[in-house]
Amino acid sequence: MTEERLCKVCAKPFIANKYRPNQTVCSSLECQYNRQLENMKKWRDRNPNYFKYKENQDSSWRDTCRQRSLEWRKKHQEYLKLYREEHRERHRAYMKNYMRDYRKKKGLAGGGESAKS
Ligand SMILES: [Zn+2]
Q1: Distance 47 CA to ligand 1 centre (A)
Q2: 66 and 42 part of one domain
Q3: How far is the CA of 9 from the centre of ligand 1 (A)?
Q4: How many angstroms does the Cα of residue 27 sit away from the middle of ligand 1?
Q5: Residues 33, 64: one domain?
Q6: Which of 73, 13, 30 lies closest to 38, judged by CA?
Q7: How open is the CA angle 88-78-62, to the nearest 5 degrees?
Q8: Residues 105 and 62 in one domain
């Protein structure tokens, strides 16, 4: 069943695909693209609530994101706590050395304990 018909977009005669007997647009890329645009427009007219629905989806998706970031922060805070504890140990050791050096230096600069009073 090959029937020649006129393309709705370019008005050129074409032979409809036998798998798509209702084809109204020829198979040229430009016409197919136009058909897709037309379909999208029709689809949008038929689904006016889609974007509303999408917004709802987005808000739940945002919640999921927030939840995930909270979980991440929680984990991260635990990590930070561990890091700080470790760092505190290092800092304490560093301060101990620093104070020892400081006292040593002060002692040398001040000319010993006797200079204090
Ligand atoms: Zn065409």
Answers
A1: 27
A2: no
A3: 5
A4: 7
A5: no
A6: 30
A7: 140
A8: yes
Neighbours of ion ligand 1 (CB under 5 A): 7, 9-10, 26, 28, 31
Residue 27 and residue 55 in one domain: no
Report the separation in Å between the CA atom of 20 and the middle of ligand 1, taken as the mean of its atom positions: 15
| Interval 43-48 mean pLDDT | 86
Q: Quick check: is 17 in a domain?
A: yes
In a domain, 57, yes or no: yes
Task: Look up the domain containing 77 and give its range.
Answer: 50-110
pLDDT in tens, 52-108: 766 667 778 788 888 888 888 888 888 888 888 888 888 888 889 999 999 988 877
Would 115 be classed as within a structural domain? no
Closest to 104 (Cα-Cα) out of 113, 94, 92: 113
Beta strands in 1-97 (DSSP E): 4-6, 13-15
The answer to whether residue 26 is domain-embedded is yes
What is the tally of structural domains in the chain? 2
Torsion, Cα 48 54 56 60, to 10 degrees, reads 170
The answer to whether 25 touches 7, Cβ cutoff 8 Å, is yes
